[in-house]
Design a protein that fits this description.
Blueprint lengths: L6 E6 L6 H14 L4 E3 L4 H5 L6 H4 L5 H6 L5 H17 L9 E2 L7 E2 L7 E5 L6 H9 L11 H25 L3 E5 L5 H4 L12 H6 L1 H8 L4 E6 L6 H11 L7 H4 L1 H12 L2 H13 L5 E6 L4 H14 L2
Parallel strand pairs: 1-6, 1-7, 2-5, 3-4, 5-6, 7-8
């Protein structure tokens, strides 16, 4: 696909780099410009909320969560929505087919109009499809008495990337919309082989030949906003940051492994990332994304300011 007027911006970095915080800042930025922003993150229920099935209730809301927690939303409204949404997931079509959400008008999905917002927020791994497997199993193998499996993780990432592109990202790009998402195929930083810290990691050619990654590198982000530490980041640096930003959260297997996180950060902080995209986009005919780096030790306000400045330069 030729790069058009659309923007496909990925916010990424090692764990604890604050991608959700930065995306909140970008949401506020676009809303302050009078642009309609909608949130596609979450489960199939969250996506269904934005479909034309619910156009009388979704038009004034950023997300299903906002609708659900709004004091003006009655219990009857919630029950009605959930009843129809459940029907789409239990057996909403012929032969008990699913009717999950998509931005393609067809007989097998429930339609979201890509033009119902100017900006769409997405996430990876998703909380639907193979992204659920990635979040529950691949990030928490130890909880199932198993070991980290980067190959299986790369494969599940690849599967949902096909899903998300065909259902959402492709029509959004074709309609020249703005996509803001946390992470993308740059998550190779987490799965690629390293002799010292990731011996079970996948090799470059294997990663690139996965079907979902063929699509991903043929249709890469226009921009990568990388928030990382310095390239000489240490284990003690990561552990200190994790302590400061944990806020009582439960840690997955990746977050518990400090040496691994130092490797991941180094890949984000150096031209390792550019080399990955140069190889992938050349192989599959995509356009090399522009990479802009931000210091994860800067204040939230400072990172927001720098990102806003960069966004302004893209229009």
């Amino acid at each position: 696909m030729e790069r058009g007027k659309f923007l496909d911006i990925v916010v990424c970095g090692p764990d604890m780099s604050g991608t959700n915080t930065q995306i909140k800042g970008l949401v506020k930025l676009f809303q302050s410009k009078g642009m309609k922003v909608r949130d596609l993150r979450g489960t199939e229920i969250d996506a269904l909320f934005h479909t034309s099935l619910f156009k009388t209730i979704n038009k004034n809301y950023f997300s299903y969560a906002e609708f659900f927690t709004d004091k003006s939303t009655t219990s009857e409204m919630r029950e009605k929505f959930l009843g129809v949404a459940a029907g789409c997931l239990i057996g909403g079509g012929t032969n008990q087919d699913l009717r999950v959400a998509s931005m393609m008008q067809n007989k097998v999905t429930s339609y979201i109009d890509p033009n119902s917002a100017d900006v769409w927020i997405m996430e990876e791994p998703t909380k639907r499809g193979a992204g659920q497997v990635n979040r529950v199993i691949e990030q928490n193998r130890s909880a199932f008495n198993d070991e980290l499996n980067p190959k299986a993780a790369a494969e599940t990432h690849s599967v949902y990337r096909t899903d998300e592109f065909l259902r959402f990202r492709k029509p959004l790009r074709e309609n020249n919309k703005i996509i803001i998402r946390s992470r993308s195929e740059e998550s190779a930083c987490y799965q690629r082989y390293n002799f010292f810290y990731l011996k079970k990691g996948v090799h470059k050619n294997y990663y690139l030949q996965l079907e979902g990654h063929k699509i991903a590198f043929a249709n890469p982000p226009t921009n990568l906003f990388v928030v990382s530490g310095p390239k000489d980041w240490t284990v003690s640096d990561y552990l200190k940051l994790k302590q400061e930003r944990s806020n009582g959260r439960d840690f997955d297997d990746h977050e518990k492994n400090a040496s691994y996180q130092v490797l991941v950060n180094k890949r984000y902080a150096t031209n390792w990332l550019e080399k990955l995209y140069k190889k992938g986009t050349k192989k599959y005919g995509g356009t090399m994304p522009e990479v802009t780096r931000f210091n994860l030790y800067d204040t939230e306000d400072e990172i927001n300011r720098q990102m806003a400045e960069k966004i302004s330069s893209l229009f």
